[in-house]
Amino acid sequence: MFERMCDQQRKGQLGDYGPFVDRADWELATWLMDSGASQTEIEKFLNLDTRTCTCPSYSGKQELLWKIDALPSGLEWTCHTFVVHGDQLDYNGEKCTEELDIWCRDPLACVNELLANPLFHEHMKFAPEKLFTDDTQWWWDLQARSIHCDKTLPPGATIAPVILASDKTQLSRFSDDKEAWPVYISVGNIAKSVRHQTSKCTMILLGYIPVTKLECLSEATCKDRAYRLFHYCMSYILTFPNL
Predict the structure, then answer these.
(1) Sign of CA pseudo-dihedral 101, 106, 111, 115
(2) Which pLDDT band, with edges at 50, 70 and 90, does 171 fall under?
(3) Which of 7-11, 42-46, 122-126, 179-183 comes out lowest in average pLDDT?
(4) What is the SS3 string spanning 106-118?
(5) What gap in Å lies between CA 208 and CA 221, rounded to an integer?
């Protein structure tokens, strides 16, 4: 996303505050969206005579929303729907099934987004740095050998340790009473002191694991299938889009 924005600015396709006219235009739009005002209240404000003093580039809420939608967006989401076949029988004597959704993004694109983020430029490590002498020696040997000896890494490449996290708490409730747990991704190249600050947004939302009671399964098989379901979802998220 950052490279795309810079390229558009170099070509004159996007100003410093594009698609807004200038800083004042951007700040007013930011305040309107963060103020908690309803769309009706925003429309009333933009129709006041006092708007001639601020002269925003949008005359109503619809134009404002169009400009916000035109802002550079993050990585695309993809939904994968699959069916769990149970061992319980329905009223027709057929085995019950349950349809679940996995929402995810490209993990390599997420890693690239983190490495390219200019906010982390001063806090990023690309070369091996030895800090311990205990059992982590194998990691140091792997990095040093890959870069200096067997040349398994091409020139200019680096190793990006991937960090995954999931809080196992209810995130939100979707239609049809569906729930999901978030899966986050980060890289070890970012300094730990920065990565541990939640305000720095060093963890990117990678996907959602569906939460289900698996009512199509009997009590004897439900626990085992729940573990297998979790690993299936994680495998799908981490190998997307190469399936």
Answers:
(1) negative
(2) low
(3) 7-11
(4) CHHHHHHHHHHCH
(5) 24
In three-state secondary structure terms, 132 is coil
**Cα–Cα distance, 8 to 17 (Å, whole number):** 12
Neighbouring residues of 49: CB distance < 8 A, sequence distance ≥ 6: none
Arithmetic mean of pLDDT, 141-153? 66
Residue in the structure block whose two tokens are 């983020």: 117
The answer to whether the beta carbons of residues 184 and 164 sit under 8 Å apart is: yes
Beta strands in the chain (DSSP E): 78-89, 95-104, 162-165, 172-173, 179-187, 204-211
Give the sign of the dihedral formed by CA 17, CA 9, CA 75, CA 184: negative
CA 179, CA 196: separation in Å to the nearest integer? 27
d(CA 25, CA 22): 5
CB 236 within 8 A of CB 243: yes
Q: How many CB atoms lie within 10 A of CB 106?
A: 18
pTM reported for the whole predicted model: 0.70
